[in-house]
């Protein structure tokens, strides 16, 4: 009975303690151990509240930027197919059968070159007929002149009356008029005969043949088309708020499909009025093509850069996030993270910068990239440039690199 009670007694000594009837040197009684453990939980490594202390985020210098005052030029784009303004269509100016066509698609011609011939059998017979009529009128005029000369001699001798002389003069005038009419009729017919020859009106390249030899042609029927590729144009449009900043002669860069590098062009013409319904102004871009590397019909995209007249506070595009339609940035203020709503203005996609109208100042420290898991009020700092690679990597990993959408 007494021994059993002793088994449950714990005796404490100066250098140990009896626990469950066994003396353990250096051990503390259970109550003291529990008390010590509780004290460690309050004042030890986990802090007074039992939670692990927060690790401050440290960002590399390249991950933090300050707003920069810069100019953001506006880029206006035009797109569409290239067209050749110097284009001519050869038409049949008289009806007949196409005897020959000496060129094909892609053939190069010069102005005035004979490119085909039309058979005009009916017109040739009419030329012969008009020629015969002209000879007849010429003979009639000669006869009228001789008769009138004889009548003048008779009238001088009083052998004929004055009325007979006047009739003779009228007959002479009529004969002259008939001769002139016959000559004009022959000339008109011969003009039609010259139309039997097809001539290139401009220098260029044959774009398309609309008829083949042996085909019966009617008046004004298309025979072939010729284009001059030395100069091409691209038609585009701009808004009414931008047209005042565009002037003829403005340089543009034109990217043509199939070409590795853009081609230089310039604004040639600007329409005087806006198009109904769209409120846009037509603009024509001119491209010099002396080597004829470009072809009409190729799709092209032209970019005109309009200089910015004002200086603007800007940030990289990557620094701006959006939540529920509200743009924001993360800044480091007084050693803590803060999210600031911003109002954006003009963008420059080529430079990757955006204008900030409200929300930051030139002295603000803004995170240059968008991170997940950032918490407002968290401790944060910018690592020194020297030897900050490891610390910055730890901070970036803690903040999580995936972008916020």
Automatic annotation (TrEMBL):
Pfam family, one: Beta-barrel_RND_2
Domain (CusB-like beta-barrel) ranges: 242-303
Disordered: region residues: 31-55
Sample GO molecular function, one term: efflux transmembrane transporter activity
Ranges of Basic and acidic residues composition bias in the record: 39-55
Coiled-coil intervals: none
GO CC aspect terms: efflux pump complex
Family matches, as PANTHER family: HLYD FAMILY OF SECRETION PROTEINS (PTHR30469:SF15), MULTIDRUG RESISTANCE PROTEIN MDTA (PTHR30469)
Family named by the database record: Belongs to the membrane fusion protein (MFP) (TC 8.A.1) family.
Protein name (database record): Efflux RND transporter periplasmic adaptor subunit
Organism of origin: Rubrivivax rivuli
Phylogenetic placement of the source organism: Bacteria, Pseudomonadati, Pseudomonadota, Betaproteobacteria, Burkholderiales
């Amino acid at each position: 009975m007494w021994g059993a009670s002793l088994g449950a007694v714990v005796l404490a000594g100066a250098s140990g303690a009896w626990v469950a009837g066994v003396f353990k040197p250096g051990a503390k009684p259970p109550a003291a151990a529990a008390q010590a453990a509780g004290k460690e939980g309050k004042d030890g490594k986990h802090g007074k509240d039992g939670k692990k202390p927060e690790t401050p985020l440290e960002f590399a210098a390249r991950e933090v930027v300050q707003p920069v005052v810069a100019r953001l030029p506006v880029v206006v784009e035009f797109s569409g197919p290239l067209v050749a303004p110097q284009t001519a269509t050869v038409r049949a100016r008289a009806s007949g059968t196409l005897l020959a066509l000496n060129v094909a698609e892609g053939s190069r011609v010069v102005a005035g070159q004979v490119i085909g011939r039309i058979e005009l059998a009916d017109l040739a017979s009419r030329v012969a007929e008009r020629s015969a009529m002209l000879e007849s009128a010429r003979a009639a005029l000669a006869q009228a002149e001789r008769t009138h000369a004889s009548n003048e001699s008779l009238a001088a001798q009083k052998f004929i009356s004055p009325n007979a002389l006047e009739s003779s003069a009228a007959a002479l005038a009529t004969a002259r008029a008939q001769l002139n009419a016959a000559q004009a009729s022959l000339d008109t017919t011969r003009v039609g005969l010259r139309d039997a020859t097809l001539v290139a009106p401009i220098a260029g390249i044959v774009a398309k043949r609309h008829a083949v030899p042996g085909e019966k042609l009617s008046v004004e029927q298309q025979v072939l088309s010729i284009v001059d590729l030395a100069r091409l144009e691209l038609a585009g449009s701009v808004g009414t708020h931008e047209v005042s900043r565009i002037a003829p002669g403005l340089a543009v860069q034109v990217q043509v499909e199939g070409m590795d590098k853009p081609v230089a062009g310039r604004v040639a013409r600007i329409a005087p009025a806006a198009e109904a319904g769209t409120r846009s102004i037509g603009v024509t871009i001119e491209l010099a093509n002396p080597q004829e590397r470009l072809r009409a019909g190729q799709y092209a995209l032209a970019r005109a850069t309009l200089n910015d007249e004002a200086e603007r506070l800007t940030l990289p595009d990557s620094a701006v996030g959006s939540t529920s339609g509200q743009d924001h940035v993360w800044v480091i203020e007084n050693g803590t993270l803060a999210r600031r709503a911003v109002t954006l203005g003009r963008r420059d996609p080529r430079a990757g910068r955006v204008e900030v109208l409200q929300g930051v100042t030139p002295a603000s420290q803004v995170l240059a990239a968008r991170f997940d898991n950032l918490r407002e009020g968290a401790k944060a700092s910018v690592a020194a440039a020297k030897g900050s690679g490891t610390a910055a990597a730890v901070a970036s990993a803690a903040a999580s690199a995936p972008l916020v959408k």
